[in-house]
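Weekly modeling sync, notes
Attendees: S.R. (lead), two postdocs, one rotation student

Agenda item 3: backlog of single-chain predictions. S.R. asked that every request posted to the team notebook include the full sequence so nobody has to chase files. The rotation student volunteered to paste the first one in as an example of the format we agreed on. Action items at the bottom.

Example entry:
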Amino acid sequence: MDIIYGRNTVTEILREGKRKIKKAVIAVEQKNDLSEIIELARKHNITLEYLPRKAVAKLAGDVNHQGAVLVAEKKNIATLDDILEFAASKKEKPFIVILDSVQDPHNLGAVLRTADGAGVHGIILPETNSAHITPVVEKVSSGASEHVLVAIVTNLNIAIERLKEKGVWIYGIEAEGKKDFCEEDLTGAIALVLGSEGEGIRPVVKKNCDVLLRIPMKGKVNSLNVSASAAVVMYETVRQRRGKK
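Predicted structure, as returned to the notebook:
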């Protein structure tokens, strides 16, 4: 079971209703401000516990719990097939994000939040040397992690090869790319690959990308934070797809 905290995250998990929840814990001092969470918990017959704010902080740890905590099962992990089937169910070309060794949970949470807004069908993470879905990631994502399919794979290159077999075009977002990302047609079945905060995409994964695209940088800093890079390219994809329709 996870200790999940934060008003938005707790609200989204309760709204979605997919997880088994042992109980919802509310800071009694903030009871009036958390009426929506209390109503959702009652609607789903979830045990409610009211504790002093200090006791809630002890349960959640040294975090900004905002007066709301859930004791709940961990998020279900998807498969590549789940992601592709989800895209097919929406009658859309697959739109996938692959994060290669992104280890900062705050960056993963931010990517998940943008991915939900951009309509990404799923995110793929490697099993090792990567942040995974944790309460910190869920809090940073403001609950978006509850809505985005996340697959964890033992080998990214094998996953990429499987996507290629399904007709998915693999775009690596790298400073050394030969073409600006906004000049590429992103309206087809695509997966965007972004690398770690310090090293970028690993060479062994980079070689497996169909095309490397760059984000043009006009200032003195040579790259954006990985979550910012992901947001820029995801929303260019949204812009192009809306234009196509």
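Discussion: group reviewed the output briefly. The chain has a mean pLDDT of 93.
Action items: rotation student to repeat for the remaining queue; S.R. to check formatting next week.
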